[in-house]
What does this fold into?
Amino acid sequence: MSITQNLSISFSSSSSPFLAPSTFNSRSQVSLPVKSVSICKCVATPQEVDTAYKTKVSRNENMGKLQAGYLFPEIARRRSAHLLKYPDAKIISLGIGDTTEPIPEVITSALAKKSHALSTIEGYSGYGAEQGEKPLRSALASTFYADLGIEDDDIFVSDGAKCDISRLQIVFGSNVKMAVQDPSYPAYVDSSVIMGQTGLYQKDVQKFANIEYMRCNPENGFFPDLSSISRPDIIFFCSPNNPTGAAATREQLIQLVQFAKDNGSIIVYDSAYAMYISGDNPRSIYEIPGAKEVAIETSSFSKYAGFTGVRLGWTVVPKQLLFSDGFPVAKDFNRIVCTCFNGASNISQAGGLACLSPEGLKAMQEVIGFYKENTSIIVETFDSLGFKVYGGKCAPYVWVHFPGQNSWDVFSEILEKTHVVTTPGSGFGPGGEGFVRVSAFGHRENILEACRRFKQLYK
Amino acid sequence: MSITQNLSISFSSSSSPFLAPSTFNSRSQVSLPVKSVSICKCVATPQEVDTAYKTKVSRNENMGKLQAGYLFPEIARRRSAHLLKYPDAKIISLGIGDTTEPIPEVITSALAKKSHALSTIEGYSGYGAEQGEKPLRSALASTFYADLGIEDDDIFVSDGAKCDISRLQIVFGSNVKMAVQDPSYPAYVDSSVIMGQTGLYQKDVQKFANIEYMRCNPENGFFPDLSSISRPDIIFFCSPNNPTGAAATREQLIQLVQFAKDNGSIIVYDSAYAMYISGDNPRSIYEIPGAKEVAIETSSFSKYAGFTGVRLGWTVVPKQLLFSDGFPVAKDFNRIVCTCFNGASNISQAGGLACLSPEGLKAMQEVIGFYKENTSIIVETFDSLGFKVYGGKCAPYVWVHFPGQNSWDVFSEILEKTHVVTTPGSGFGPGGEGFVRVSAFGHRENILEACRRFKQLYK
It folds into this structure.
């Protein structure tokens, strides 16, 4: 089995057959042989580079600052290499955090209904509003922000939180200083580097210059010591946190909002796992008084409805949030959404609306409940093996401590000996060193089997 | 009828009912009243700005350079204002270039089939490869680039060409100088401004500083005099052109590629209308020898299959294209695609694959044929009225000359007297002054009715 085939199993299970090439106007009908595709397969060899024609366009120096590959493709690459080494291994992926359970039928029916409608005169629609369809914006406001003072037109529907993070970075531009939780979801730091907000990567501390890394660890209850942080313009804050699984308390978020107000900073609050919260931790930053003047919130249907492949998210930019000159942040974000984006797929949006119906919400809660049961199984397993385990109560991620060990080494050992893919904590920042993130997204039998193998390895 | 309602008719015809808010965990069940949504409705009044809390984050100065709103939302705004003035007017939109005809059933069936499959264990898929699914990349390569030396892994599937243009600008960064056809699709210039590649807008010449505006007009056959252009890093070139409808000849494209090679420039070739070409003009820049070393090509299913709302496009970055230091452009683009994007919707991709089946290609050709008949009707109408008319043979746009007139004035007069929305040429750059773009996307009866009204106005 080739790398290519493995990758296609790993990342895509489309069952659509390859359709033979057909006549296209005056073009030749002779098709090229189907080449194998692999991720990141576009590196010229040194020899090619030496002799080949080069343009005179300088490479963007910010791109050159980035380290290795983006985390998850790198993990996919290692997984593929492992399969090449052990072609018969039954690999279980608890790495990338990819949803595995089918989308509830009440939602896929709406997706299919919209698809069919597009072939009728009455049901066809072309360009939608870049900001999203009005009924979906209304449903998001009333479902997630009722009584919180967020209005329909504060909400921008998108193709996912990751994409919105980059669009927000474009709004902010290169002359801002950002702070991130350490560890955190790597897209925050990488998009900051790409936009030129940072200095070079400093190998000794494993940090980019000109970013505030706000250490979150068991000692501080995974909430940073804000008194030690110098003033940032933009604070990326994810709760429940990816990767630690920690959900900030109301008191912590009150502190965070006050810190932002004291510093005149803008919080970008990533609440993509809010529906996984048990207990009364806030589900939205806007539950904190005054947050509308300092915070943007971004979220997604990916982990609620299994929309990781369908692509649908949203970002809230309250009209009360102003730059230092009084210009509304929402107005610039709107301009970016109109210029650099053309709205989420109208089919995905129809699915999103179905998600927010009473039946859809119930169905999503059931899927979330299933993954939370998986989480408990993983937590209990590592608990029983004597590990210190964090997260897992309010998030689908279990954050396992391997004190004193290099997390890529732990990742490799687990993969080598159990054929289970996890994520090394240091991939989320230097504060993740000594930890491994285990994702609870998986079929039940795979979670159980992975836990059996963990028990075998660490008994 | 309110502005809001008009806008929703204008931009979105989703028939999904508004779903009532439901319980969401511990949140209040009281919902906010449904507020009216309007595009760009996030301007604080001066009074609010004076007294409101402001953050200390400076507004990105590049955003401040942009002029007014992005063109098409601005036209939507004027259309809405017109409907407010004439609530009973039967407005016909030949402005934004939005497709109107239903998507062929062979394609929507595939969209629906994929939707349903997502609710089954076997058919479910989560995150796909950020670069697109392998079968779709293969089908794009063999359908559009057979014999041109473009391989599957040179092709990046996306949610549309407009989005890819911004992602390409992120790759290039702020230290490049770009050139655009004048007139041209406004996203090229606006994304360049946003990325900080330009100086300020110069009102007297209606151009941004540090962009080369390559004038394309009837006198030069809508192909720029390249000898008068100082060296650009990046050349945005759209053929068939939006808005002029001109398709470059093979000889012209050979000149363009040579110009890029002489200057070490990179061409971003927008071929989103290539399937509208009649005759033997090249459909892809890669038909020109040597283009793979100097050109990126971006395209889209929007105007082929009516996917303006479904969202699916692609960009070709050949591995032969290198920055001045020999680093492959594709490798940086891949990194951006992985960090700032998460792939196109898997449902849309299933639709794209169906588009490229023999039946899908035939169905797309029929839709394109329909719009081309519309184009002929519009061309003949303006011809018969004595106007100089350009475009329309290889593109769904007709470029009508109103010599000596201000194109916003012409736009306003047409709207006021015929209730037909067009697009003022100057919205595409100073070179568009004195022209109006009439889009051929419309139901046949609307095209015929619009032409009757034009004849009434200009008889």
Observations:
- Residues 105-358 of chain A form a domain with the Aspartate Aminotransferase; domain 2 fold (CATH 3.40.640.10).
- The mean pLDDT of chain A is 90.
- The first strand of chain A starts at residue 92 and ends at 93.
- Residues 176 and 233 of chain A are 6 Å apart (CA to CA).
